[in-house]
């Protein structure tokens, strides 16, 4: 009886060791797959963002050289009245999906989208690109534009 108990204990220990090794391998494989997937998502997102953004400096330079480029303001009316980049088209990002048809005549032109800091312009740019527009989000938005000392307009809208 003691031999059976001893043998059973040895078997139990062997089974635990195997399970621990299997669990470690499974955990390692799961962790590896997670890391690969996470890095893949970051890379895909970075590629998407890189192809749909433009720096303030590049935007300013392109706007000075190419009069066919359109600058679209997606901020609120209050923000626009306070300060803006020229008298450019304006559609608040909250209304863009319902009003995107207003931009149909601009589908063959590059649209540089801006907001205060760049977040809303990213959202608007994604929507416009899905609708077939050649849109770029201006990184840093109006805040970055002003920090570069580029011209802005304020006061009543014309």
Give the SSE map.
Elements: H1 2-51, E1 53-54, H2 56-65, E2 70-73, H3 77-82, H4 96-99, E3 110-114, H5 119-130, E4 134-138, H6 141-147
Parallel strand pairs: 1-4, 2-3, 3-4
Quick description:
With 158 residues, this protein is α/β, with parallel strands linked by helices. It contains six helices and four strands, in the order αβαβααβαβα. The protein is elongated, with a radius of gyration of 28 Å.
Which short descriptors sum up this protein?
158 residues, 10% strand, elongated, 2 domains, Oxidized Rhodanese, domain 1, 4-stranded parallel sheet, 6 helices, alpha/beta
Describe this protein's structure.
The chain is an alpha/beta fold. The chain has 2 domains: 1-51; 53-147, Oxidized Rhodanese, domain 1 (3-Layer(aba) Sandwich), CATH 3.40.250.10. 56% of the residues lie in helices and 10% in strands. It is built from 6 helices and 4 strands. The chain has helices at 2-51, 56-65, 77-82, 96-99, 119-130, 141-147, and strands at residues 53-54, 70-73, 110-114, 134-138. A 4-stranded parallel sheet has the order 1-4-3-2. The longest helix is centred in the N-terminal third of the chain and has 50 residues, at 2-51. The protein is elongated and about 95 Å long. The protein starts with a helix and ends in an 11-residue tail after the last helix. Mean pLDDT is 83; it is low at 43-50.
């Amino acid at each position: 009886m003691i031999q059976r108990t001893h043998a059973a204990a040895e078997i139990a220990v062997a089974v635990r060791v195997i399970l621990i090794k299997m669990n470690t391998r499974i955990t390692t494989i799961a962790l590896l797959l997670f890391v690969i997937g996470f890095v893949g998502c970051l890379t895909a997102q970075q590629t998407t963002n890189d192809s749909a953004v433009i720096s303030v400096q590049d935007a300013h330079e392109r706007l000075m050289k190419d009069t066919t480029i359109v600058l679209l303001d997606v901020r609120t009316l209050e923000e626009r009245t306070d300060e803006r980049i020229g008298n450019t088209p304006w559609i608040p990002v909250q209304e863009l999906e319902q009003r995107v048809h207003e931009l149909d005549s601009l589908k063959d032109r590059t649209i540089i989208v801006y907001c205060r800091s760049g977040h809303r312009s990213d959202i608007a740019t994604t929507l416009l690109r899905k609708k077939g527009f050649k849109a770029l989000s201006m990184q840093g938005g109006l805040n970055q534009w002003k920090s570069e000392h580029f011209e802005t307009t304020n006061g009543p809208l014309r």
